[in-house]
């Protein structure tokens, strides 16, 4: 099992898009690369809102949904984390409790790096600290966009935009299906509406020839039409 895991573990740390590419050999030596990443099965809660997090969760394989829970118990999906992404950094840096919950959507391998090590990287490695700040700013910008969309866009426009965003983030397989499988409830939690509304609108998009649906799988047939519906710039 170790031989199967080690290759993608190393790729994750030195990948050109990884924040850890900024680390010096001495700093890299502080990360327990000799340890196998922990396996998390679909449905597993990695951390919950209100929990103390003292470190980074680094996704090496799989997909994790990150969400907040409303007073009515309804989830609001904030974002998804996939290979190369980090989770829990805001709580680690701010020393505050987690404001979101992370739940495994597709079986995942995740490496945990202790908070003291992360803080040391931030203090002594300017490139690492700068990229972490850029990641935080990007997430803040996306949150601001979502607030604007909720206030100004219709549910139909928001659903079309969500499909386009999922396509950009996860791309399509050879058959043009989204490479992420979500329930209707999860889609509704992203859009910010009732599940029934998403079911109805997906049916309309299908009838109009914009998408094709097979169970949870969505095939994008007319991306330009969805971009136009969402009032996005192509």
Strand content: 15-25%
The number of E-state strands comes to: 8
| Known CATH architecture of the largest domain | Sandwich
Number of helices, counting only DSSP H or I runs of 4 residues or more: 9
The CATH topology label of the largest domain is Jelly Rolls
Largest sheet: 6 strands, antiparallel
Radius of gyration: 19 Å
Query: Into which percent range does the helicity of residues fall?
Result: 40-55%
Could you name the ranges where pLDDT drops below 50 across 5 or more consecutive residues? 1-8
Overall geometry comes to elongated
Report the span from N to C terminus: 44 Å
Task: Summarize this entry quickly.
The protein is an alpha+beta fold and 234 residues long. Helices cover 44% and strands 22% of the residues.
Write the layout of secondary structure elements.
Blueprint: H1 2-14, H2 25-28, E1 38-40, E2 45-47, E3 55-69, E4 75-81, E5 86-87, H3 89-94, E6 101-114, H4 115-124, H5 126-152, H6 155-170, H7 184-191, H8 195-207, E7 211-214, E8 217-220, H9 223-229
Antiparallel strand pairs: 1-6, 2-6, 3-4, 3-5, 3-6, 7-8
Polypeptide structure, described:
With 234 residues, this protein is an alpha+beta fold. 44% of the residues lie in helices and 22% in strands. The protein has helices at residues 2-14, 25-28, 89-94, 115-124, 126-152, 155-170, 184-191, 195-207, 223-229; strands at residues 38-40, 45-47, 55-69, 75-81, 86-87, 101-114, 211-214, 217-220. The strands form two sheets. Strands 1, 2, 3, 4, 5 and 6 form a six-stranded antiparallel β-sheet that branches. Strands 7-8 form a two-stranded antiparallel ribbon. Helix 4 (115-124) crosses helix 5, helix 6 (155-170) packs across helix 9 (223-229) and helix 7 (184-191) crosses helix 8 (195-207).
